[in-house]
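User: Need the bound-state model for iron/sulfur cluster:
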Amino acid sequence: MKSDQIKPNKPKIAFFDFTSCEGCQLNKLNLENELPDILRHVELVEFREAMDDKADYYDIAFIEGSLSTPSCINRIHDIRRRSNILVALGACATIGGINSMKNLQPIETVRETVYGEEKYRFPTLPAIPVSAVVKVDYEIRGCPMSIPEFLRVLKALLMGKAPNLPDSAVCVECKLRENECLYDRGIVCLGPVTVGGCEAICPSFGQFCTGCRGLVPNPNKDAMLDILTQHGLSLEDAQKRFLLFNSYNIESKSIT
Amino acid sequence: MEKFNLSTSRLNALIKHLMTRGIVYAPHKNGEVSFSFDEVRDPGKVILNYNRTLQSIKKYFLPPREQLLSFSLKSGSLSKVEPENPLRIFLGVHSYDMQAVLRLDYNFSQGNPELNYLKRRQNSLFIGVSFEPDTYHFSRSVGIMVEEFDGFDLFLDKHSSGYTLYVVTQAGEELLSGFDHLEEAPDRPATHREFRNKIKYNFNRLSEVFDHAWDSSVWEEIAQRCVGCGTCNLVCPTCYCFDVEDDVNLSLADGSRYRSWDGCMLNSFAKVAGGENFRADLSDRQRHRVYRKFKYITDVTGEPWCVGCGRCTAYCTAGISIVETVNRLCEEYEQTVLRKPLAKQDWVL
Amino acid sequence: MSNHIRTGIEEPDRKMLELYYPEIAEITRTKQITELEKWFEIALPGNRDLNHQPGQFVQVSLFGFGEAPISVTSSPTKRGVFELCVRKVGTLTTAMHKLKPGDRIGIRGPFGHGFDLQKMEGKDILIIGGGIGIVPLRSLINTVIDRRSDFGRFIILYGAKTPGELLFKDELKSWREDPTIEYHVTVDQGTPDWDGNVGVITTLIPRLDLNLGNTIAAVVGPPIMYKFVLMALKSKRLPDENIYLSLERRMKCGVGKCGHCQINHSYVCQDGPVYHYPVIKQLPEAIQ
Ligand SMILES: Cc1cc2nc3c(=O)[nH]c(=O)nc-3n(C[C@H](O)[C@H](O)[C@H](O)COP(=O)(O)OP(=O)(O)OC[C@H]3O[C@@H](n4cnc5c(N)ncnc54)[C@H](O)[C@@H]3O)c2cc1C
Ligand code: SF4
Ligand code: SF4
Ligand code: SF4
Ligand code: SF4
Ligand code: SF4
Ligand code: FES
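Assistant: Bound-state model below.
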């Protein structure tokens, strides 16, 4: 267990950004102003690329975004080497996320659509989660990642313990908040097979869960597809729902 | 038993009166087609004509998340947390939910009685209301009539032109004191409600069915359709399993120990640190849940622990029906144990 | 105001009902006995006795890290302090490994049912411990040693994966040297300097010469061990009524409320962890 190796005084933490869709809102989360309490306990050595000189050691490195170019791969290896604990932040980094939708098309098509004639100047790989390339110690899921969960993980790591993250469905949190189930409004939702931890934020605001936190362990996918189709989606649409965030998980387990 | 006429127009006056006596909780609209118990602030918003609330009133005695104690990390000391117990009046409770509370009373007072639950439970008064059974209700099949008074202090029986208000206990009578102009109700024939038995066997025979249901193929069949979301546990008024977890504040100096609702349908419920999961298969978890409702506690108390509210079925996105499950088991029992041909279907699904 | 609680608890006895408040105890001594296992000696306020039975457990709290069920490994014959032995596997157990004498922990309990000493008196005792299962059994073993004349023959079978994982090595040596104890140890995988038995614990059973009617077996080990040990005991024709075993389940409350530890209708934290084998045979979920 790595978490107990953190040195008690002022661990060095850093944030790194890879291919992500407007980030996990760490920009918006004004760390300096909102979290003075927690920041007293850490030394922020790198925030995005803001600070130029590389530190040679991080106690905790937070990684945002999925990996999609060969240079990403080199960079993530480099960061891993210099980090004691590596935490993947957000759907892109943890499950490939929306970026991995492109895995469903042949890679050449993607490059053509994105780069047109110039495609040969931009090598691209399928979008893959960080864990497909280096060892990830902990994952903070969600698109955007959930701030309460980020704090939960940070607190746990600073206390020298492994974060205890839920592995039950979003429905559990919906029930604890006594939300009306969207299915009762005729809206289909991926909550029953999606890992909770976001406090069912979308259903709480009347939005269906798109599955941004990835699938629960041992998901019963066939049963979920049945639920979606029985509630009016065509099989094709049901599969699309599933794949929005879970393409990497479902379609391309073999890519590493 | 004393009974009074209460016209629909005087209902608000009664609620206002109750609000002078204690905190009143009653069903309100929640979302588009659902209801939930909430504290009454505006009597006009109370809805007594509802099918079921998303959660039962269990949430007031066993809150979804509850602080058990708080602690200081530095000194390693703990502070106790006193559960609050103001006088609370629950208005518009259906008989099956009342019965569910009585069952929880048993769970929290037998063996090692628990302060947190019992303290919260102590100062509560209950006013029942009759309901029109819908497709999901089957409380009658587990021995609970719509007009079951047990547990209530007062009971409102709806009829075509208003309510008959029954005074069930002395506490109920005291609750009414100061509420004027109550006129004695005439004896009237009981309101006829269409509420057929939905479970094939009388509930006191189910224990015997479950003696033979352990190896049934039904468990595997439901498991194929189930996604293990835990909804059926988390909406059940007689489920009381919980998880316990410590949370520290951002200062990392102090924190609290919390308990929150948990459910045996969830993947990690029976998992231990070595990685062994004692109920890894959904079929095992389904079986455990249903045995908990119809066999394990029932063999000790004589009462089914399912009160027939229909929530687990109404809110299961996969459409898994507990009535159907039990009926399938009854049929199997009949065919394999009693070796009788299937009887005429005098029950409905 | 009336209250409807059917079971008739009018004014709850507070002390009894405050189930979840641990008592703050002090660690008096510790010893790292293997890489993974650490031993603790613990004193309750005023050096009060824990008053446990061998096989019972306590809920150990470390604020901020949670709670976990841990068997008491010392015997009730040891007064004033008690002992635990903790394997580092997760959040709480890892944090416990960092504790030193003088540190404070929360204790609730003792909980559950331990070994039925009365039924064991006058009988031959056969201990079968696999891996960390020796931890609760050590409480029973030391009770028998301290009250040696109350019991008949005393046979101890102990198995671990490797010689390095054997716990309480000093005591193992004294058991081996004690002429009143028939002590047999085995490891799944030997090392060059290991000159004892190699093989799983069940290989020790066939060679035993038991007085079947008068022998009580106490079995504790990892889940997969039970099936094979029971088969071996069966082929020895040891009656089922003479077998006790201790089961492990996930536990949160320790007091029969949270539901996590259930095996069919039985709550391991109340009816167990030590069960009479005929009872276990009625619980299809017990041994898979
Ligand atoms: C009756 C009994 C006696 C035990 N005696 C000992 C002992 O003497 N020494 C020892 O080292 N271990 C013992 N264990 C196992 C010990 O309780 C677990 O290793 C411990 O709970 C793991 O907690 P953790 O926080 O370190 O692990 P985590 O994996 O972080 O645990 C997470 C949560 O899961 C639960 N959990 C995980 N594993 C278990 C488990 N095996 N049993 C119960 N709950 C679990 C805990 O409630 C914990 O809060 C015993 C277990 C039981 C049931
Ligand atoms: S709205 Fe979605 S997440 Fe919430 S209970 Fe319904 S299916 Fe589950
Ligand atoms: S409800 Fe679903 S989509 Fe929304 S944040 Fe949670 S997991 Fe993501
Ligand atoms: S609510 Fe339905 S799908 Fe969810 S766990 Fe229960 S039976 Fe399975
Ligand atoms: S098992 Fe289902 S029907 Fe029965 S009480 Fe629970 S939620 Fe209601
Ligand atoms: S064991 Fe399952 S069915 Fe029983 S109370 Fe707990 S969650 Fe509900
Ligand atoms: S540990 Fe909670 S019921 Fe047994």
